[in-house]
Each structure stands twice: as C-alpha cells, then as structure tokens.
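Hi R.,

As promised on Friday, here is the backbone we talked about, encoded as structure tokens. Could you run it through your design pipeline when you get a chance and send me back a sequence?
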C-alpha cells in the first residue's frame, strides 16, 4: 500500500497542526494544566499501536496477537509502580475524568454520599459538581476553603462527621497551596470513608519530591498523565494491594479489594479496548520522569511561580491565599477594575495564554468570573528560570494595569516574543 505524507493526504488538517505548532512556539503557555509532551512521547502516541484491540489486561486479554501490547502495558505499569512505590497501577483510563468515574464505580453505589472540593472554590467537576455525573448519581456534600483561601479542615471534618460520606476526595484544579494528604486521611479514617487523592495537577511535583505524596495516606490515587507528567492525554490509577483474577466475580467493596474493584471498574465496567498507543506515550513519559532534567524542571516550576506571585503582589494584585506553594496562581483581578475575561483577553494580546477562573465565593457568573488562573509548568519546561520569571511577572502586571494602552501592549508583546525565541520549543522538524 502506498501512503502519502499528511501534508498531501490531508492538507487542511496538516495546516491546523502547522498553525498550532506556530502558536505554541510563539506564545507563553501559562494555563497551569498544560505542558509540552516530548517528541519521543508524541512519536510513541502516534504509533501503530493505535491499530490494536487489547481488551482485558496483560496476559488476560480477550483478543489474540497481544505479544507486544502485553509487553508495552507491563512496562508502563512497572515504571509507575517503581516511581510511586505502589503495588498496583492501572494505565488504561482514557483520561482523568474516566479515572475518577472508575473510582466511584468501584467504591460507591449510586446514591451514596461523596465529598470533594466545591468547583466554585477551586475543585474539579468530577469531585461532586452539581452538573456532573458525580453529583447526579451520588449525593454530593462539598467542602470549601476558609476566608484565607486555604482548605478549611475544621469544615471538612464537620461535614464529614455530619454526612458520613462513603468517599472523600482531595485534589483540585485551582488551588495554589500544598495539599495536606495526612489531614484528609485522618478525617476519612474517623468517619470510615474511602480517601481518594486526585493528583492530576501536581503529579510531576510529587515525583520530583517538591510536593508531599498521598502514597501511604490515600486508598486510591488518580491522575491525568498530560499535565505536569508531560505525557499523552490519558489517566492512571494507583493503589496498594494485589488484584485478583479478573474473570472472577466482582468482590465486596472493601479496602483489600480496591485493586480488583478498580480494574473491573475500568474494564469491563466503563471502558472497552485500551488505547495502547496512548499507553506507549505514558510509558515514555514515565521513563522521562525519572531523569534529573525532569526533577530540576519541576523544582523550577515552583520557584518561577513564587517569583511571578511576588511580582504581582508587589503591584497590588489580589492573590488567593496571598501566594502559592505549587505550580499555579489564582488571582482576583477585580481590584484593578477588570474582569477575569478582560484579563485573559489582554494577556492573549501579548501572546500569554491564561484562563479566566472563578475565585472562592465569586460574586460574578462562571462565564465572566472575577479571576484568572495562571501557572508556570510550560515556562520551566522551556528552560526558563528565575530571571525570566521576573520579566514575565512584570509583563503580566503591567499589561493588566494598562489593558487599553496599546503602546504598553506592544512593548510587552515584543518582550514575550523575544523570550519565546530565546527559549524555543520543538525547534527541530521532529514534530512537523
Ligand atoms: N480542565 C483541567 C484543568 O484545566 O485544570 C482539569 O480537568
């Protein structure tokens, strides 16, 4: 069979990829949930493993021809087990939301009470937001943050004692501080709940030892693999204990049975054939995550984030919790007489991508919230360090204080362009 290169086979799609590559190269990506997958990860993901059906798990499949998929999936599993020092890993979730759905499916019955951080206070949709399956099929009793923006553990404990949830989640999408997994575990134990930690945002920080780990505290840990892990868009579930034979009936919902319950929830409970090409990308990302370069880059994510936070604080910006411990900043911009949407648009003009975001107890509507969320994973991955963080902090501050001043916009656009040229991404032809 004769194949044409993509540029000839489908010039329209090829052009979209070329244009997106140019956008990524020429702008500063500061949406904290984004990252750059390496060319090796991209290569693995775009491989011929996409052709293969492999329902089941290594050595227990429903289709033949699994000699290479078994080897591949086992490599990914073993790498994750080694990194996190856990007994059991499932690398088949299609992404973070399906991974979380599997936790519910494994550990709860419809109608059970579940508890996660309120979306309006920084939590994730799948942790019990009222428009999501997690609140439609379960009774959601959310917790939030205190006046200082930090998770209020007195409130978490009080709600847990009152509502007796079956499952408590730690993890969020817009929380700028370190999570106290031990405190969550203690509360879960007090009320007899399962404790799930969703580490999607901070997985790279945990691997690099710059954020504490939920291993040893959480009964089950979920993550995406495309945020600070820098892998493909997918998910992963980690736990301790051993899974029993998948062909046996689903066991009782107990802590000891979690590995089996999770495996059965993913397949055949929720998903069909695993995306082995994506699992190939996860395996490569997990190998890269064991390098010094990965660890150093994650250290730099936090350092640069703190520097940008300091610059913004100096100029009177209102940072939720007054700063950051991790890779992201959540900032209420209304004291500068702009909305989150206006801030996002102004920064887009200087080629910095951030996202508008609600702040805790936001009086404004979700489509036009009071804040923005920004972060440094992509900056550090480009090799930017303290000096560049200072420059970027100043650019953001000046732009947001002068959203209608075209000269200032132009000046900062130039600074951003120069930084992008000095710290290129995908500079070879390997991803074109
Ligand atoms: N949408 C992701 C984020 O941006 O944080 C969470 O799923």
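Update: got your reply. Pasting your designed sequence below so it's all in one thread:
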């Amino acid at each position: 069979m004769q194949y044409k290169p993509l540029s000839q086979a489908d010039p329209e799609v090829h052009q979209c990829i070329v244009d997106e590559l140019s956008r990524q190269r020429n702008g500063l990506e500061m949406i904290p949930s984004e990252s750059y997958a390496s060319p090796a990860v991209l290569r693995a993901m775009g491989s011929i493993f996409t052709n293969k059906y492999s329902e089941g798990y290594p050595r227990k499949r429903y289709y033949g021809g699994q000699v290479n998929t078994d080897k591949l999936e086992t490599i990914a599993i073993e790498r994750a087990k080694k990194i996190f020092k856990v007994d059991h890993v499932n690398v088949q979730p299609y992404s973070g939301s399906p991974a979380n759905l599997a936790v519910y499916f494994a550990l709860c019955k419809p109608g059970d009470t579940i508890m996660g951080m309120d979306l309006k206070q920084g939590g994730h949709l799948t942790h019990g937001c009222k428009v999501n399956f997690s609140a439609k099929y379960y009774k959601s009793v959310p917790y939030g943050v205190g006046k200082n923006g930090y998770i209020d553990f007195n409130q978490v404990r009080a709600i847990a004692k009152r509502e007796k949830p079956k499952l408590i989640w730690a993890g969020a999408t817009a929380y700028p501080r370190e999570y106290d997994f031990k405190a969550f575990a203690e509360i879960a134990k007090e009320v007899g709940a399962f404790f799930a930690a969703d580490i999607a945002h901070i997985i790279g920080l945990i691997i690099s030892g710059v954020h504490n780990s939920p291993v040893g505290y959480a009964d089950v840990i979920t993550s995406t693999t495309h945020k600070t892990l820098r892998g493909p868009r997918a998910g992963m579930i980690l736990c301790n204990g051993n899974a029993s034979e998948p062909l046996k009936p689903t066991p009782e919902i107990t802590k000891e049975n979690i590995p089996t319950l999770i495996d059965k929830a993913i397949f055949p409970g929720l998903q069909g054939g695993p995306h082995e090409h994506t699992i190939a990308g996860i395996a490569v990302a997990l190998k890269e995550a064991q390098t010094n370069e990965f660890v150093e880059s994650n250290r730099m994510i936090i350092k640069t984030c703190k520097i940008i936070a300091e610059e913004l604080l100096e100029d009177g910006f209102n940072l939720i919790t007054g700063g950051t411990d991790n890779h992201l900043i959540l900032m209420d911009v209304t004291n500068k007489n702009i909305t989150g949407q206006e801030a996002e648009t102004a920064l887009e003009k200087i080629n910095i991508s951030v996202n508008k975001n609600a702040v805790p107890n936001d009086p404004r509507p979700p489509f036009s919230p009071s804040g923005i969320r920004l972060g440094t994973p992509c900056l550090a991955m480009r090799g930017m360090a303290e000096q560049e963080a200072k420059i970027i902090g100043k650019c953001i501050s000046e732009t947001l204080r002068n959203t209608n001043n075209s000269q200032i916009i132009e000046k900062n656009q130039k600074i951003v362009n120069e930084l992008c040229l000095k710290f290129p991404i995908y500079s070879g032809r390997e991803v074109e």
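One thing I noticed while checking it: The domain at 301-422 is CATH 3.90.1150.10 (Aspartate Aminotransferase, domain 1).

Thanks again,
M.
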